[in-house]
Amino acid sequence: MNPKHAAVPSVSDESTKRVWQILEATTDCVLVLNKDWNFTFLNSKAVAMIAQGQDLIGRSVWEVFPDALGTPFETHYRQAFQDKLPVSFEEFYPGLGILFEIHANPSGDDLVVFFRDVTEQ
User: Fold this and answer.
1) Rounded Cα distance, 53 and 20, in Å
2) Which DSSP string do the residues of 58-77 spell out, in sequence order?
3) How many helices (DSSP H) and strands (DSSP E) are in the chain?
């Protein structure tokens, strides 16, 4: 994992360390967006799939992926935040040439997004 791109917490608390290890161990890509739509966490699988060599932490998802505005990505993410309910969907993102399976789950003031490439399926 490249710590320049993934949000590696300074781990002083065992439960925080354990959660971080679980998010790194999952087969899914995981990212977290705050209420301002800024990336606050990406696991190493998410970095490898979507970062394209950029440091995304602190940047707006809409700035990094402007082609997602006005698409089901934006609609579903906003719906999850507004309704405080999880959403699941599949959507193709032309900028990366990937069909994503996405599960977006609100958590407090954040949106936790689990996703994977299902293009071949």
Assistant:
1) 22
2) TSBHHHH-GGGTTSHHHHHH
3) 4, 5
Taking residue 18's Cβ as centre, other Cβ atoms within 10 Å add up to 11
Distance CA 91, CA 110 (A): 21
> Residue 2 above 60 pLDDT?
no
Q: Are 86 and 79 in contact (CB under 8 A)?
A: no
User: Mind listing the pLDDT tens digit for each residue in 27-86?
Assistant: 899 999 999 999 999 999 999 999 999 999 999 999 999 999 999 999 999 999 999 999
Residue spans of alpha helices (H) in the chain: 14-25, 44-46, 61-64, 72-83
